[in-house]
C-alpha cells in the first residue's frame, strides 16, 4: 500500500504530508514530480498545499495543466482516492474534479490560525472515524479559501451529501461555511484545512490523523 | 499568417464578492473622492497571436480564455482586438 504526493514547483506542504503519512502513520509514501504520468502502484494520491507555479493567474490555474493531472483524472475514474489540501483543493476545482472555486478571503487577509470544524458528512470513507457533526480542530493557512459556487451547484452538493466539512466560525466568507467537499462518488476530497499539520503529538493536536489514515481505506 | 493584437478583460462575475475592489473603493473616500458607488477589479491580458485571419485568432483566444485565462465558475471575460494589427510575411 502506497501513497503518492504530487510535487509542483511552489508546493511547500509536500514534506509535511510525507512526515504525517510516513513518519506518523507508517504508510509508505513517495513524491511524484508534476511531470510524471505514471500513477501505477499507488493506492492514494495527495495534492499538497503551497503555491504551485506561484499561484500566477489564479490559484491552481497553471498547475491543472501539469502532465500528472491527466493521469490523475483516469486514476479518479478508476476509483482511486485523491486528497487535495489547501492549494491541492484549489487545483482540484480548477481541474474540474471538484465543483466550485476558491476565491480571495472576504477580509483580504492571509489567515494562519486554527479552525474549529464540524464533520458534515460521513457518506464517504474519509470521515469514517467520525460521527456526523463531530467537532475537530485543524490548522488553516490561506489567502484564497473562500469557497464559492452557484446556487445550483450548492444544491447539488447538499443533495449529494458532498459537503464534508464546515467551519464552526467561518474565517474567510465561504458560502455556507464550507471548508471541504467531496465529489459525488466520494473518492475525491478537497479541504482548505491542513490535516497533515495535526498528526504529531508533539504539535499538540492529532485531529488530522484520522482523516489521513483513511487514505488507505 | 498575420499577427493580431488583442486584449482580454477578465472580471469577477457580478454575483461574486470582490473584497479587494471593496477595499479599494473605501480608499477612494480617504483620497477625498465621494460618490464611487462601485469598484471592481479585474485583469487585463494583452495578447499577440499569429493566425490565418481574425476569425481564427478569435477562436484561439476564445478557447484560451474559457480554459485558462478565466475560471467560468467565478469569472467572465470580454475580448477586444486592437486596430493596429500588422500583417507579417510568412
Q: Please give the order of strands in the largest beta sheet of chain A.
A: 2-1-3-4-11-10-9-6-7
Order of helices and strands of chain B: EHEHEE
How many helices of chain A? The count is 5
Classify the secondary structure makeup of chain A into a structural class.
Answer: alpha/beta
How much of the sequence lies in strands of chain B comes to 25-35%
Question: What's the structural blueprint in terms of helices and strands?
Answer:
The complex is a heterodimer of chains A (217) and B (90).
Chain A: E1 3-7, H1 14-24, E2 29-33, E3 44-47, H2 67-77, E4 81-85, H3 87-95, E5 101-103, E6 111-119, E7 135-142, E8 146-148, H4 151-159, E9 163-167, E10 178-182, E11 188-191, H5 209-212
Parallel strand pairs in A: 1-2, 1-3, 3-4, 4-11
Antiparallel strand pairs in A: 5-8, 6-7, 6-9, 9-10, 10-11
Chain B: E1 2-12, H1 19-30, E2 42-51, H2 54-69, E3 75-81, E4 86-87
Antiparallel strand pairs in B: 1-2, 1-3, 1-4
How would you characterize the overall build of this protein?
The complex is a heterodimer of chains A (217) and B (90). Chain A has 217 residues and is α/β, with parallel strands linked by helices. Helices cover 20% and strands 26% of the residues of chain A. Chain A contains five helices and eleven strands. Chain A has a nine-stranded mixed β-sheet, sandwiched between helices. A two-stranded antiparallel sheet of chain A has the order 5-8. In chain A, strand 3, helix 2 and strand 4 form a beta-alpha-beta unit. Chain B has 90 residues and is an alpha+beta fold. Chain B is 31% helix and 33% strand. Chain B contains two helices and four strands, in the order βαβαββ. In chain B, strands 1, 2, 3 and 4 form a four-stranded antiparallel β-sheet that branches. Chain B is elongated, with a radius of gyration of 17 Å. The model of chain B has no long low-confidence stretch (mean pLDDT 91). Classes of the chains: A alpha/beta (217), B alpha+beta (90). Chains A and B meet through loops of A and helix 1 of B.
Amino acid at each position: 500500500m502506497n501513497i503518492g504526493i504530487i510535487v509542483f514547483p511552489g508546493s511547500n506542504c509536500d514534506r509535511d504530508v510525507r512526515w504525517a503519512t510516513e513518519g506518523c502513520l507508517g504508510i509508505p509514501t513517495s513524491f511524484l514530480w508534476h511531470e510524471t504520468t505514471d500513477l501505477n502502484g499507488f493506492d492514494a494520491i495527495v495534492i499538497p498545499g503551497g503555491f504551485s507555479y506561484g499561484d500566477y493567474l489564479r490559484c491552481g490555474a497553471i498547475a491543472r495543466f501539469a502532465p500528472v493531472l491527466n493521469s490523475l483524472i483516469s486514476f479518479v475514474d478508476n476509483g482511486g482516492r485523491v486528497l487535495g489540501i489547501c492549494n491541492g483543493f484549489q487545483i482540484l476545482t480548477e481541474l474540474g474534479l471538484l465543483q466550485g472555486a476558491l476565491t480571495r478571503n472576504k477580509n483580504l487577509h492571509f489567515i494562519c490560525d486554527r479552525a474549529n470544524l464540524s464533520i458534515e458528512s460521513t457518506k464517504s470513507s474519509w470521515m469514517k472515524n467520525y460521527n456526523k457533526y463531530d467537532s475537530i480542530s485543524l490548522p488553516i493557512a490561506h489567502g484564497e479559501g473562500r469557497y464559492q459556487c452557484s446556487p445550483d451547484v450548492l444544491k447539488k452538493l447538499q443533495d449529494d451529501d458532498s459537503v464534508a466539512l464546515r467551519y464552526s466560525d467561518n474565517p474567510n466568507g465561504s458560502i455556507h461555511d464550507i471548508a471541504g467537499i467531496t465529489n459525488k462518488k466520494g473518492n475525491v476530497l478537497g479541504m482548505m484545512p491542513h490535516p497533515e499539520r495535526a498528526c504529531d503529538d508533539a504539535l499538540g493536536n492529532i485531529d488530522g490523523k484520522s482523516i489521513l489514515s483513511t487514505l488507505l481505506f | 499568417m498575420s499577427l493580431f493584437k488583442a486584449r482580454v478583460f477578465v472580471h469577477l462575475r457580478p454575483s461574486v464578492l470582490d473584497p479587494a475592489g471593496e477595499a479599494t473603493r473605501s480608499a477612494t473616500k480617504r483620497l477625498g473622492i465621494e460618490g464611487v458607488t462601485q469598484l471592481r477589479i479585474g485583469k487585463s491580458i494583452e495578447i499577440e497571436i499569429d493566425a490565418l485571419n481574425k476569425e481564427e485568432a478569435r477562436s484561439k483566444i476564445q478557447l484560451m480564455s474559457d480554459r485558462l485565462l478565466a475560471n467560468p465558475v467565478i469569472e467572465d471575460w470580454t475580448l477586444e482586438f486592437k486596430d493596429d494589427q500588422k500583417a507579417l510575411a510568412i
